[in-house]
Amino acid sequence: MMDEAQPWLVVGLGNPGREYAGNRHNVGFMVVDLLAGRIGAKLGRHRRAVADVGEGRLGFGGPKLVLVKPLTYMNLSGAPVAALAQFYKVPPGQVVAVHDELDIGYGQFRIKCGGGEGGHNGLRSMSKSLGTKDYVRVRFGIGRPPGRQDPADYVLSDFSQAERKELEFLVDRAADVVESVITRGVEPTQNAYHGA
Question: Which residues are annotated as a binding site for tRNA?
Fold first, then answer.
């Protein structure tokens, strides 16, 4: 059940530090940075959590967004998210996690609420800290590693040259998906983007 008065917590999952900035695992950070630009939010360190946080509204008089980039490493993302959800009084159904997804082809998106974490340590940490799996996930497809490359190495490597040609467009599209979840709901967003 959506609460119009409550803000939405949009969490981009990633790792802090310049060396990780272009990694596939950091696509959540990229999307949050773009959303911050769209709503005119300035990301800065929050006093209640180890995270960069920015606030703003989606459109004139629209829903309030709290954009979050946890500054713990991926595996520990849950603690700052839970602290911020409590601080802003955001119900789990209005928490949106944006993350990379190995099981979806590059350039595709899947949106879901609840369910398993698919081995994603950032989601696992969030579920544990929030005490529920009933939050929204915007899954940004990065595809499987080529050949025998270890998935752990693959997610911590930068997007390929060919992928980078499309990356800006796809990050923009992912931001559209997040906005659609907030303004239209999960199901209409699934209908709009799952075939695309």
Answer: 20, 73, 75, 121
Domains of the chain (ranges; CATH) run 8-193 (3.40.50.1470)
Length of the chain: 196
Q: Kindly state the tokens that stand for 157.
A: 């490597």
33 vs 79: CA distance, rounded Å: 21
Does the pTM exceed 0.90? yes
Quote the CA–CA distance of 49 and 51 in Å, as a whole number: 5
Backbone angles phi, psi at 110, to 5 degrees: -135, 140
- Is 25 one of the catalytic residues? yes
Residue ranges at the known binding site: 20, 73, 75, 121
- Please write the tens of the pLDDT for every residue from 102-122: 999 999 999 999 999 988 999
Decide if 127 contacts 112 (C-beta within 8 A): no
